[in-house]
Amino acid sequence: MSTQIKALVFDAYGTLFDVHSVIRLCDEIWPGKGTALSQLWRAKQLEYTWQRSLMQRYEDFSHVTRAGLRYACNALGLRLGEAEQARLMEAYLHLATYPEVQEALARLAGRKLAILSNGSPAMLEPVVANAGLAQTLDAVISVDALRIYKPDPRVYALAVEKLGVPTGAIGFVSSNCWDALGAKAFGFRVFWCNRAGAPVDELGVLPDSEMRSLAELPALIGAA
Amino acid sequence: MSTQIKALVFDAYGTLFDVHSVIRLCDEIWPGKGTALSQLWRAKQLEYTWQRSLMQRYEDFSHVTRAGLRYACNALGLRLGEAEQARLMEAYLHLATYPEVQEALARLAGRKLAILSNGSPAMLEPVVANAGLAQTLDAVISVDALRIYKPDPRVYALAVEKLGVPTGAIGFVSSNCWDALGAKAFGFRVFWCNRAGAPVDELGVLPDSEMRSLAELPALIGAA
After folding, report:
1. B178 in contact with A, Cβ within 8 Å
2. Which of B7, B28, B75, B156 has its CA 20 to 30 A from that of A92?
3. Do both A135 and A37 map to the same domain?
4. Angle B91-B52-B41 (CA atoms, 0-180°, nearest 5)?
5. From B11, B18, B60, B179, active-site residue
6. Would strands A139-142 and A112-117 be described as parallel, antiparallel, or unpaired?
7. What is the pLDDT of residues A31-49, one digit of tens each?
8. What is the pLDDT of residues A133-184, one digit of tens each?
């Protein structure tokens, strides 16, 4: 089964890129509030992607990320000025990869490697370049071309189209369980990177494999 | 403007029906955990409606409500047996209305009054009957006929179709801000019942009116 995988498609935020530096910056700007703010920010950012998709009122990920930040600051009584908003949005362009990412990707060489992300091209291109991944990846695919967010099946179909690899030969990797399950429902072979040790979401499908970090991925697909 | 409203369409859970009794039962079964459990349960219940809608894998609200409960118990380390699950789901069929609901609806008589809810008919019919609202309402409309959840615009269009009243003559009332804004984006005149005093969601539209309870509604539409 492992030899069938001709391409690996990765989610970006939380899967390859560690958003912890954004959390740290939240705490630097509003001491003691960083965790509460970043959790609510992330929750609203995602809610808005789902709600706007269903409302047929797409705005790009940069827009919904700022909207989530404004809501979260309002709800927590934190004053968000232009300067703070600019610093936090800028931090999204300079995220580090998780420590195991570079080596794991190197061991997967020979397959097509790509990102499939909610992020807009204007957010993804700098973060990929700043992390030194531009040469490693065959494609950086954004939902922005479709104006719809994950887990709509058209998003996963975009990876099939852009990579020219059949659905059944694509392995999909995400730390977001609902994203992993959206990809599974679509037909990919799915590796859920369960960094937080969370329960699996109850959406009627299960990932093919579960791992705690991407260091386990090469062995799981027989590339060790 | 107020004379234009020929029908009022209400969200059910949290707007007409007080879900507090479910929270209390959570706390009775798992003392000290009721608030955390019911918050996570509600969050997952909603997430699953959005995610399943986008995944094109609709299951009815009873199904996603049970799924959310299972996830929340798993995440909090609470043992959910058949008996507990049955008691909690049964509680959804016996919710009380908020204290001001009966009088507010009585003062709105003369207009068409309806519910438009994510709830399945098998959940809505008993709760409406048990609360004594069956004679007050002209229609109890469920998304189930469409197999898609709020805030998809087809859901709001269903109320127009079922009531035979033009979009612009329908007032929509919800305590869920994202639902209110979905209805506003569709074209209804929208009254957000902000029971919790929350910030407005950042979805690019605003409700026409905001109130803290339905007691304010008759005056807002000129029926006082």
Report:
1. yes
2. B75
3. no
4. 35
5. B11
6. parallel
7. 999 999 999 999 999 999 9
8. 999 999 999 999 999 999 999 999 999 999 999 999 999 999 999 999 999 9
